[in-house]
Amino acid sequence: MQYDMPVAAERQLEALVDRIETNPGKFVEPEELQSFQEQLNLRPALSTLPESISHEDFIGILKLAMLTESATDSYAYAIHERAMRYDATWLARFTTNVWAPDERTHYAPYRSMFLDLGFSEAELEREIRETREAEYLHTSGDTPIHLTTFGMVQEYLTDNWHGLIASLVRDSAPEAAQIANRIKQRETLHTLWYRDMTALQLEAQPHLLGHISEALVHFQMPGQVLLPDLQDRVPGWLPKMGADFDRMTRDMIRLIHESLGGSVRNSGEMLLAIASEKGMRLGPLDPGLVRTALGRLGGPGFGLVGEAMLLKAGLGHLYTEPLEEAAPTHRRVERVRSVMRNWIADRLEIEVGYESYDTAS
Ligand SMILES: [Fe+2]
Ligand SMILES: [Fe+2]
Fold first, then answer.
1. What is the rounded distance in angstroms from the CA atom of residue 128 to the CA atom of residue 74?
2. Counting ligands in written order, which one lies closest to the CA of residue 104?
3. What is the pTM for the complete model shown?
4. CA 163 to ligand 1 center in whole angstroms
5. For the domain that residue 143 is a member of, what is the CATH number?
């Protein structure tokens, strides 16, 4: 796959990783795990689950968190090896020095929760070992920008998962909620780091937009590869856990928009690229044709599509400029744009959730 970075951009990426290495925030440390383990009492959570969540669901939800987190080194290997293939020393270094050591403790609190619930240690060790030994096949593309795009989405969804677990046990097992939220905070940081890495690469090489859309279209959660039986149940579990799909869609669109440098033009082109790849339609129109047509116009039309997408997702504030300050011609143009934007927005159906990612292949 085509990928290369100008030296200046490589320096910026190395500098970003330098800053992360200097200030990675507070990892979930062994002492914190120790005191958590001593205070933990998860049993009350079992009797206060929402009616729609059975004990077996609850166990599966926690298992998915524990086991996918336990395979950190499989993902680290997959990312590091690909980063080196493209001489992206910044990404290799980030993965080995920051990301993997940070991730390595995330499974541990869940293991403690299972021990607290009376699960056998030997059994847990066996499941963890099997997950770690399973082959992780990475399917979302190989270049550094594919990897950072994948990383951003994966971290966001994982962040969301730990957050949903925290809210499930918030009142019944506050210590468990607290540690799940601590892990969630780490995943939030990872999401933003990958977002910034993606933005820097795209800024230097705008033609890499196609790699980003490819990574998004072919995105799969690692759990889909390592633990398909559990991962397949996620779309069913999410609504029962109180997942807010509108918020998830909005968050994801905002993240992608930011990873594209906050450019509505890039976001519009991305939306059309994804839509045509996935065989979706824009009202009566084939998005592939729309993309070609807008591309011939030199691209400003993409901006309108991008704005419509943000508008539709409730993120209109990300592009709106205060009209009072604008010149009269600009105001007239803006009125026409607004009619067009609304017309497009009315025809967009976007839901970026687990569901759509799970069916991506
Ligand atoms: Fe994690
Ligand atoms: Fe993470």
1. 12
2. 1
3. 0.92
4. 12
5. 1.10.620.20
Which residues are CB-neighbours of 160 under 8 A, at least 6 positions away? 243, 248
How does the average pLDDT of the chain come out, rounded? Answer: 91
Under the banding of pLDDT at 50, 70 and 90, the label for residue 343 is confident
Q: Is 303 a domain residue?
A: yes
In a domain, 1, yes or no: no
In the predicted model, what is the mean pLDDT of residues 78-98?
A: 98
Tell whether 40 and 178 lie within a shared domain. Answer: yes
What ligand is nearest to the CA atom of residue 154? 2
Q: Are residues 307 and 216 in the same domain?
A: no
CB burial of 66-96 (b: ≥16 within 10 Å; e: otherwise) equals: bbbbbbbebbbbbbbebbeebebebbbbbbe
Residue 98 Cα to ligand 1 midpoint, Å, equals 12
Note the ligand closest to the C-alpha atom of 25: 2
Q: Do 168 and 36 share a structural domain?
A: yes
138 & 239 share domain: yes
pLDDT of residue 285: 77
Q: How many angstroms does the Cα of residue 259 sit away from the middle of ligand 1?
A: 21
- Of 151, 143, 259, nearest to 200 (Cα)? 259
Q: Give me the domain span that covers residue 149.
A: 7-243
Condensed to tens digits (0 to 9), the pLDDT of residues 241-297 reads 999 999 999 999 999 999 999 999 999 999 988 888 887 777 777 888 888 888 777
Confidence of residue 325 (pLDDT cuts 50, 70, 90): low
